[in-house]
Amino acid sequence: MTLLPGSTIGMLGGGQLGRMFTVAARTLGYRVIVLEPDPHSPAAQFADEHIIAAYDDTAALTLFGNACDVVTTEFENIPAKTLEFLTQFCPVRPAASAVEMAQDRIVEKEFVRSCGLLPVPFAAIRRIPDLAAAQELVTFPAILKTARLGYDGKGQSTVHDLAEAEAAFVRMGEVECVLEQRVDLACEISVILARSVSGEVRCFPVAENEHRNGILHQTIVPARVAPALAQSAQAAATRIANKLDFVGVMAVEFFITRSGELLVNEMAPRTHNSGHYTLDACITSQFEQQVRMVCELPFGDTHLLSSVVMVNLLGDVWGDSQPLWLALLQSAHTKLHLYGKREARVGRKMGHYCTLADNADAALAEAGRIFQQL
Ligand code: ADP
Ligand code: MG
């Protein structure tokens, strides 16, 4: 059933993705209730209501579920049980099963394979002897990653031989891990897509992503890759969304190797940092598209209106004082987005900006010049 403006959307998670979703939803006239344990939530600043509670607090979830017409999420680590519990009150989009798939790297990579796609060569590591056995599948240098709860390069360690791998595994507390081939990357791209309740899919333009220290630094659109490769990535992401019976907006990150191979890195059952460019450079943003999908509205148009570069603003840029915002605001075709976080910490995503230009090279040059001055 279509939920029209005036209906209430529940958002699980209160970070910047929830914030930009909330702005989009309220712009369209929806009410938004955020459930998030942190009282200083970027999303709650824009929401109609903020329920400050843990994701497994059944009394709070009952209150939340009863007040909402539909529930969605901005955070892949919402417990599947929470999403399942909420289905007794209203539709939950995406479903627990689709969110759960992205919570464990081992499950995720096996799922990618079951879709007929290529994950990065990997081995599941549960005990120390698994590392020696893994050498049949993975050669050094490799990256040891915790199977669960990693983000922005956290929970990862590059290892050059078996001894280093064993030491890293012990350091990580011998939790379940994957040992992954370190790939010689030509570039990284991502596909953000929306899938409706009736199973239709629309992809946003493919984004080219540059990471620094495992954290996204900038996104360039249109991606500077062969059109055939961009189309294969969109087809692969679509296959994944269909197989998950996904409803909402999701992202798939890809590696392109020096030999031109397309590998699936990971997926996110939510809007994505590399899709922030859609806020300023597309007819419909990824956040409005999420509102449309969870409320069973028609798709918004996903066309790119301008070449664009999105640059993340990490806490590193703050140092002891505010960044020199005027250097950015003097650029008349640059848009600043700050997330309302109280404290700037190294590696913490505080905001981003999008610089629009006639072509990707011009946008890159301008965005880079601004970044130098901040
Ligand atoms: P996260 O969940 O932290 O985003 P990712 O697995 O996407 O974890 O890793 C973050 C970044 O680290 C990637 O976007 C890429 O730049 C780099 N990276 C991760 N795994 C590999 C790999 N196997 N080979 C080369 N680079 C990698
Ligand atoms: Mg990633």
UniProtKB/TrEMBL annotation:
Q: Which UniProt keywords apply?
A: ATP-binding, Ligase, Nucleotide-binding, Purine biosynthesis
Tell me the enzyme class: ligase
One biological process term in Gene Ontology: 'de novo' IMP biosynthetic process
Q: Which Gene Ontology MF annotations are present?
A: 5-(carboxyamino)imidazole ribonucleotide synthase activity; ATP binding; metal ion binding; phosphoribosylaminoimidazole carboxylase activity
The catalytic activity, as recorded, is: 5-amino-1-(5-phospho-beta-D-ribosyl)imidazole + hydrogencarbonate + ATP = 5-carboxyamino-1-(5-phospho-D-ribosyl)imidazole + ADP + phosphate + 2 H(+)
**Leader sequence segment:** none
SUPFAM superfamilies for this protein? Glutathione synthetase ATP-binding domain-like (SSF56059), PreATP-grasp domain (SSF52440), Rudiment single hybrid motif (SSF51246)
| Cited Gene3D superfamilies | 3.40.50.20, ATP-grasp fold, A domain, ATP-grasp fold, B domain
- Superkingdom: Bacteria
Q: Which Enzyme Commission numbers does its entry carry?
A: 6.3.4.18
Q: Name one GO cellular component term.
A: cytosol
Q: In which pathway does it act?
A: Purine metabolism; IMP biosynthesis via de novo pathway; 5-amino-1-(5-phospho-D-ribosyl)imidazole-4-carboxylate from 5-amino-1-(5-phospho-D-ribosyl)imidazole (N5-CAIR route): step 1/2
Q: Which PROSITE patterns match?
A: ATP_GRASP
State whether it acts alone or in a complex, and with which partners, per the record: Homodimer.
PANTHER family assigned = PHOSPHORIBOSYLAMINOIMIDAZOLE CARBOXYLASE (PTHR11609:SF5), PURINE BIOSYNTHESIS PROTEIN 6/7, PUR6/7 (PTHR11609)
Free-text function comment from the UniProt entry = Catalyzes the ATP-dependent conversion of 5-aminoimidazole ribonucleotide (AIR) and HCO(3)(-) to N5-carboxyaminoimidazole ribonucleotide (N5-CAIR).
Family classification: Belongs to the PurK/PurT family.
Please state what the protein is called. Answer: N5-carboxyaminoimidazole ribonucleotide synthase
Natural source organism: Thiothrix unzii
